[in-house]
Amino acid sequence: MKILRSLALTGLALALLTGPARAQTDPLALEIIDEFDRMMRGESSAGLMRMEIDTENWSRALEMRIWSLGTEHSLVRVETPAREAGTATLMVDNEVWNYLPNVDRTIKVPPSMMLGSWMGSHFTNDDLVKESRLIEDYDIVISHEGPRDGEDVWEFTLTPKPDAPVIWGRIEQQIRKRDRMPIWARYYDEDGSLVRTMSFSDFGVLGGRTLPTRMVMEPTDGEERTVVIYLELEFDVGLAEDFFSLRNLRARR
Amino acid sequence: MRTERLWKIYPQDPRPVEAVRGIDLTVLRGEFVAMAGPSGSGKTTMLNLVGGLTRPTRGEVWIEGEEISALSDRRLADLRMQRIGFVFQSYNLLPVLSALENAEFTLLLQGVPAGERRERVRELFREIGLEGLENRRPPKLSGGQQQRVAVARAVLGEPALVLADEPTANLDSHTAEALLDVMERLNRTKGTTFVFSTHDPRVMERARRLIRLVDGRIESDQAASG
Amino acid sequence: MARRDNDIWWRMAWRNLWRNRRRTAITASALSFGFVAAVLMIALMDGMFEQLVSNGTRVITGQVQIHADDYRPERSMHDTMGGREGLDLAALVSAAGSVEGVTGVAPRVYGGGLVSSGDETAGAVLMGIDPRREEGVSRFGAAFVVGGMPGPGEIAIGNAMAETIGAAPGEDVVVVAPAADGSMGNELFTVSGVFRLGMGGFDDAYVLVELGSLQELMAMDRGRIHEVAISVDRTDQADGVATRVEEAVAGLADGLVVEPWSVFHEQLYFMTSMMGAANAIVAMIIFGMAIFGVANTMLLATFERRREFAVARSLGTSARSIVRIVVCEGLFLGLVSLGAGALLAAPVVVYFHEFPLDLSSFIGTYSFMGSAMQPLMTVEYSWDGPLVSAVALVGTGVASALYPAWRAIRVPPADALASR
Prior knowledge:
- Chain A is α+β, with helices and mostly antiparallel strands.
- Chain A is built from 6 helices and 13 strands.
- In chain A, strands 6-5-4-3-2-1-13-12-11-10-9-8-7 form a 13-stranded antiparallel sheet.
- In chain A, a hairpin with a 4-residue loop joins strand 5 and strand 6 (about 105-110).
- Mean pLDDT of chain A is about 80; it is low at about 1-25.
- Chain B has one domain (about 1-225): P-loop containing nucleotide triphosphate hydrolases (Rossmann fold).
- Chain B is about 35% helix and about 25% strand.
- In chain B, strand 4 (about 60-65) and strand 5 form a beta hairpin.
């Protein structure tokens, strides 16, 4: 789960790069990946986040409890607003389930709906699970290294491997060197037009680690945005895989 | 009617044909003239020139004081309709029209009202022995009858000049005589000018002036004993 | 001058036409058969268009639709008629319903969502409908394999979806849909029936929900709808009906657009237009060939009458009058052929109207642009085809005479004197 885990751990860029490396990928990128991969293997976390969604037609804010284990397991449960409390999402590997307390049912998101919005935000269901596959689907090269606006950075460019089942034509990612924090990620369509931008800010310490506590996803056209803010975060909370079960998805806590 | 130094040369291979070679001719109102001569002597060409059907190569054609060789096609058509009548060797009635319709054709072109047209046609038909044949189509008429209808068509428009191209060539002598009677009478009673081309001795006999053409020139021009 | 008594030229033309009766009869027969063929072809094409358009519009869309001007093409759920406030739905439906030529009016709300039963879930187009009104516009009502239209708290699904999610009438399913307030609407519905339209993209995706229930699920007020679909008595009259409906509903909300199927069903319109154009080209080729054939015949006739034209010219007939004789002959030929053709065409058209050509034994039913076609060549009564064909036929006669007429006035008047 990209949004959550990338923030819960050290940084999105590194999260993007986890997974088995391929020959086309830049060795330096691989080094960063390896370092990150070792660090986060078996890592568990728990926290509280706030999601603010602004669209042309409505605005709303949700507070959610989040749990994750490694890159393949996470669980999110809505706390407020009260009307939607208990609504939960479970992600295991590439699959997504939603629990709807109103009707007391669990629904697996069908493949055809993976590109649909998650909880009305500007993230798709796909965004929640695709992260661990990025290294398999894209070639990653360092397209820039050096100062940008007085900050020493790397810029990675991710281009899809032939026949990779992806929707982006290209992804660009900026990471600052001093603490390897992500600054932004830009998503381009197949025509090379910028479709959306995710930016990271408010770098702070949560659960003993430095990370961006605020991220904003903005589609290029329109005035819309989704903001995610981390309020609480702890690491090594001792979660096992069996925590991420359909039974737990339904359980109100 | 008058021509001055009239020439007509048809461009033709291997060399141009000089059909009319400098003819000066004057025909006065009321004359009854025959132009005779062998084939190729220029008779028909003279009629074409005088009738405004073709233009001369050189020279002038005057009809009632108007020089016609420079007129536009439209003016020429008007001139033919108003002032010239034609009688053709092969009658040339319009086969889809009745005898009456053929006869009144020129009057119709002249814009004479229908009632008056009919009246004039019937009157003339009575005069020239065509009474009762008004509604017959040409194929149902004898040669003589057809030619009389053609004469009626030529004279009814009261032209200054009637040009007749071998009018009796296809008729037996009795019919030819009768036709000549008709034309002569019209010449006398109405004062219509007639110019024939012919090599029919009967026509030459009846003509009051006989012009002989040879090789596009006037060989002789004499008042006939008639 | 000759302006009076113009009838002589008509008379000559008419009599000329009958001078060679056999030739005229053959030419006129060919032309009248061409006319019958054209009338029949157009009538069959009209029947096919009607079927095509009917199948394309009578299943779901109707022939006229009302939307908010910003609804299409994005079809955002927020772009309801009358904006956020919506409008007086009852007034809208009754205003549209009272327009001449309208046979049905169906208000609709659309949403996207998930339908889930047991462990299986499918993406769905949620279509909020008034079941009673929908009967007059779409074919859903007649397409039920089992069960029927949904009442409040119920949905109807296509057979393909029923198979996918394993749901049957009487069972409860979960419907999840993004709501207008940004929340995720979710509710249990009972399956009222399973329909089968037999068209790709519908039986596996469309879910009919009772209008009010869907509005509630999507947190929309009762006066908020996305579409009013209207059926008309004649599909070829949709444009006119659309204009009248637009006038009738103009006062009920700002920014309402009323469009006939030719606008919102662009593909179908394009297709029928293309076919129409192709037919027009075929017809033009046929009549073009006829023009050459008839012109040839008339040229022959004109050539045979050279001397007559020369005589007429030598007597002082104007070129205009000569042209009139020849062109009138062509006109009469066209009119005579038309008369014969009309006598022939009438029983043929009546026959095919009463007994449509059923080609199903040869080719079975087939699908065209997503609509199931009956291979039934029906002939509709219409004046358009015969009128167009009649004009083309008479035009052919006149056009055929133009060149012969030009040749006729080129005959030198001196030819009259030339001996035989």
